[in-house]
Amino acid sequence: MYIPFIEKGLKILKTNGIMCYIVPNKLTGANYSKQIRSMLSQYSILSFRDYSEIKVFDDANVYPVVFSLKKTKQKFQLVFNYLTSIPTSGPM
């Protein structure tokens, strides 16, 4: 269900625009996410945060990840965070 939203976001993203999504961690390994991962690799991934070990939503059985990317030819160093608790202060 989340893949069409990512595709649409990428389509309407302007040059130098930034987008950020919270999606299921299935994005990282599910076979049906392979094509969207390939599309995402064409952009500059600014950050990728894996919250799979944290109960983020009380009423949902989903393991979320959050990513942000920029539509630019310049590549950035990826910041990957695998979190086991939610920080209470400071930058994430």
Fold blueprint:
Blueprint: H1 3-12, E1 18-24, H2 34-40, E2 44-50, E3 64-70, E4 79-82
Parallel strand pairs: 2-4
Antiparallel strand pairs: 1-3, 2-3
Question: Helix proportion of residues, in percent?
Answer: 10-25%
The 3D shape can be described as globular
Number of domains: 1
Radius of gyration: 14 Å
Q: Poorly predicted ranges (pLDDT <50, ≥5 residues)?
A: none
The share of residues in extended strands comes to: 25-35%
Determine the number of helices (DSSP H or I, runs of at least 4 residues): 2
Number of strands: 4
Derived structural class: alpha+beta
Strand arrangement, major sheet: 1-3-2-4
The overall pLDDT, averaged over residues, is: 85
Distance between the termini: 27 Å
Task: List the defining traits of the structure above.
single chain; 92 residues; alpha+beta; four-stranded mixed sheet; 27% strand; globular
